[in-house]
Structures are given as C-alpha cells and as structure tokens.
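Sequence in, structure out.
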Amino acid sequence: MTMATGARSEFKLGAKPLAAALIGVACGASPLPFNVLPLVMGPISSEFGWDFAAVSAGVTVFGIIAALLAPVYGALSDRFGVRPVVLWSLFLFGLVFGSFYFLPTSKTGYLFFWAVLGAIGIGSTPVTWSRAISMWFNKHRGLALGIMLLGTSLAAMVVPQIAQKAISAGGWRMAFPVVALLPLIVAIPLAFLWFREPRPEECPEGVADASGAIFGITLREAVRGYRFWVLLTSILLTAFAYGGAHIHIAQIVGLHGFSAEVAASVLGVVAIGILTGRLLVGFLFDRFWAPGVAFPALLLPAIACWLLMGTDATLSHVIIGGFLLGFAAGTESDVIAYLAAKYFGMAHYGRIYGVLYMPFAIGSAISPIMYGIVRDRTGSYDLILVVAMGMFAVGGALLLALGRYPDPKALPSGH
C-alpha cells in the first residue's frame, strides 16, 4: 500500500536520500569538469601550443560519449536500482579525473582521457540521482529536484576556489587530483550511508498504485508522442546556447580586461545564479504550469549574452551577465527532470531521461568547441553570443506547446 503524501511529509521521509543526492551531484561528472576546465584552459593552451577550439574539444568528446551512454545508465538504474550505479560511477569518476594530472601533450591522448571520463562518469550525473528523488517526492518534486540540482551550484561556488588554490600551489595539473578527492572522500561515504530508492509503502501518492506498481509509459510509447520531440528540441537548443558560455566565461571576462581572479569570482556568481534559478524555478514548478514558468526564465540569459558582448563591459555588466547565465542553467536542468516525470511517469524514467539527456549532453559538448572556433577566428565571442540569444528564446517558447499534464493514474503501471 502506498503512503499518501499527507500521512507523512515527503521531506521527512526523503530528507537523507535528498541530502546524499545533492552532495553526489555536486561531486559528480556533471559539474566538476566544467568548473575546472575554465581555469586550466589558458595554461593548457599556452603549454601545449593549442588553440582554444582544440582545448575545448576534450569536453566535447566527454559530453558526446556521456550522451550516448546516458540511456544505458538510465536503463541500468531502472533495472538494478540507482544506488549501485551511482556508487560505482562516483568511484571510477574520481579515479579517472584525478589521473588527469598525467594529461599527455598529444591531442589523441588528451581526447582519450576525456572519452574515458565520459564513459564512466555519466552514472554520477542527474540521469541517475533524479530517478530516486522523483520517486521520493511527488507533491514537492519540483522543489526537491531543485534542491538536488543545487549540487552543481555548490560545486560552482566551491570547486573553482579549490582548483585555483591547487593551481597556485602546484600548477594547472594539480587541480585535477585535488578536486577528484571530492567524489572519493565526500560523496561516496554519504551516498553509501543515506542514498536509496523508496520502498513501495514509502512512495508518495501519484508515483505508484496500491500494489506498489509504478505509473509510467515506456520509452517506445514516449517517442511516439509529439511532447517527447518538443522537449528534446528545446533541451538541445538551450544546452547549446549555455554550454560554451559557461566553459568560456573566464575567457569572456578576460577579454573585457579583468584578471583571472575576477574571472574565478564571476564563476562563483554563475553558481549563485544556478542556485537561485533552481530553488525559485523548482518552487514555482510545484505551484504553476511548469512550461509557463520556464519560458520567461529562459529569456533572461538572452539578456546575459547581450551584456557580455563587446570588450568594454563594466564589472557590474559582467557580474549580472554571469548571474543570468547561471539562472538559465538552473532552469534547464530542472526542466528535464521535472517534465520527464510529469509527462511520462516513473516506470521507465531512467531510459526516458537518459535519452532526453542526450541532446543536453551533446549540445553542451559541441557548444564549447563552437565558442572556441568563433573566438579563434574573430577574436571575440560576439557572433556566437548573438546565436545563443536566439536559441534561448526559441528553446523556451517550444515548451509552451507541451500542453497540460496527463493524469498519472491514467498512465499504465508496472513494477
């Protein structure tokens, strides 16, 4: 028998798994590479003699490999549960990321390291964690997912500072093993103690029926409907617009004449934007129609792109631009997890989320190299920022076509 939401607070039941997921996301493959690479991109370019497109290609390979394997990790989570998937992936991710201390100077070897990281790290991202959290929460799912995804905000506030100190002490290579300690000695012990999926009697109403069978359609049924493709296209556009801007934000700030220390601080402002976006948008998702909330939220980073154009922005323009970009990232990740659960149910959530994560990861992966190409060929990021403005607007508007949520009890159910 499932337990009604009113019987006991969802947050009382799911507090420990949510806390473990928050820290797990913070220490996983979703934020760590993206918060270290902006600080080592310049030193790598100088030492290896590569242009910025070549340095950015590493995270492109990482993202594409991760994207292709996301449905596999999602299916493993559906079949075996999330807990073993995240524990093993965190462990292997930490080991491989730490080994980046030995990055070779050959481009083939450099890309190989990133490919391995993508192959083993995707299981430590929201692709897996969000399945369990979406099963612990229904009435407060938007806020719970927002809290879980605050892990990337926490990482963006803390990791650049840790990495910068490591770089100052031992050079750019030292950033990798120092940051790799986070999944190994922080996230894994907490996940081992606290993280699990709910038992049938712990599931809130609307997630499973009285027998414990979980509501939801299959991936095959999802792809037959227009909503899946609308959501996928929106995700691809917004991910492409944002991914390169985040990776290159330190370089964008530098082109405006500010120091590396200021650039690191702007990354912290981006993190605050992510945090604000996730909490506010998650809170509003639980109270209003989510696409109607997401559309105006995704228009804000278009303003950020305008503020960051040129080479003479003031410090206040750069700070506001960084905040609004972060707000977009906070909105986008919440959109994928929340709307996948709302429109398709939880029975096959891992597979469906995994496929929807593919355009997110591919867009985020291709974007940095495109930003790098534009920078290398034009000397600025203005052209790609104009393109990003349009992508944010169109990606947000597409969500308005999703229509009202289906009744979860009208969806098929299966164990």
